[in-house]
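Supplementary notes (optional reading)

For those who missed the lab, this is the record we used. Protein: Amino acid permease. Length: 470 residues.
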Amino acid sequence: MKGGLFRKKGIDSLIAATKGEKSLRRDLGSFDLTMLGIGAIIGTGIFVLTGTGALTAGPGLVLSFVIAAFACLFAALAYAEFASTVPVSGSVYTYTYATLGELMAFIIGWDLILEYSLAVSTVSAGWSGYFQSFLNGIGIQLPVELTAAPGAIKGTVTYFNLPAFLIVILITFLLYLGIRESKRVNNIMVVIKILVVFVFIAAAVMYVKPANWQPFMPFGFTGVFNAAALVFFAFIGFDAVASAAEETKNPSRNLPRGIVYSLLVCTVLYVVVSAIMTGVVPFMQFKGIDHPVSLVLQVTGQNWAAGIIDVGAILGMTTVMLVMLYGQTRVMFAMSRDGLVPRALSKVHPKHKTPYINTWFFGILSALMGGFVPLDELAKLVNIGTLSAFILISIAVIVMRKTQPDLPRAFRCPAVPLVPILAVLFCGFLILNLGGETIMRFLIWLVIGLAVYFLYSRKHSKLGQTENDS
């Protein structure tokens, strides 16, 4: 409908936009994309949430990871079809614009702010805790007032989380320099943290006591499902691979591989690590522990390995923040190029070929949130924003198959509409397990987004202006 809320961008016009002045450098292969996905996924989930999830599900946590992985896998196949067909920056926002229309595209772009920026801030707080533990180990103590956000530690006066702020600023500078420099750093850190996970597996597997797996589901399936909704956070990030479409050498081949490979590798690691953890240490001993993987090795008397795990956690969380912030800037880059957010956010640096204003804006914003805001309760908002994105991309695949059946597709999501419907059902089920308070906060965020769209975005939409001029 001309001038309507559901006007769509054509696939040809989306791809044409990548070849103009505001274009990005293509420098990523399938290995780089797989490493990008692993960099985003392996971090807080394996080093922190495994302990919290064990308290909710017991040894049944392995099932929780499998359930969350299935929700991601079904959505990943939908992502892979779109990413190979529409190799444009912006991920699910761009795909939704081409299938469900402008309003839905804006809403999903607005949702992704919850996933990416808030995830960066949340992970930066966890990174700060591990980093401070590392500093304490070598005899360096930061002023307590600069170790956490105000009110984050009960009974302790804190003003600002300085390490959390500084690490995000450092990552922002790296992204400002360019994707080539960022991928090199990411690839190195990903290799190191995978080796660290293998060190844990090798050091702890001989201490597993099968008796600790009994009862396997102490809180029944309710505990397993609730843990699945929680540990879903551990898988967030594979979709950021799709954000790199415009910087990929051969997107039709490499993007599907990067998305699916990274998800499969991380799922196997999560299941193995959680099984070993609950087999070595009775699950109730993880209560109040924010370094569960290190605890397992400390219990076995392998403090040397525990120190290695701490370093791996620091590197792991660093790559998560790197990829998440990267994904955020690329989504906003696409939205800005379409006129739905201010045009300055799509300005490309003449030398580094990066959206530099965009990068610094969201980098500083995420750094300040990590420094000043206790984000424990808001972490669930990250999950619900991501799950909503997965639902929309799955619906979009079905719509695209109906409306553009002859569109060339380098990769086709199998068993459509069954697989996308399963993605919707799995993701919807996990949303229900996040609780009513989280859903209400999410709805408030959506209302704010709708206000932004009707007051600004609809008037400045490039597609809308083109229709009015025609």
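If you only remember one thing from this example: The chain has a mean pLDDT of 84.
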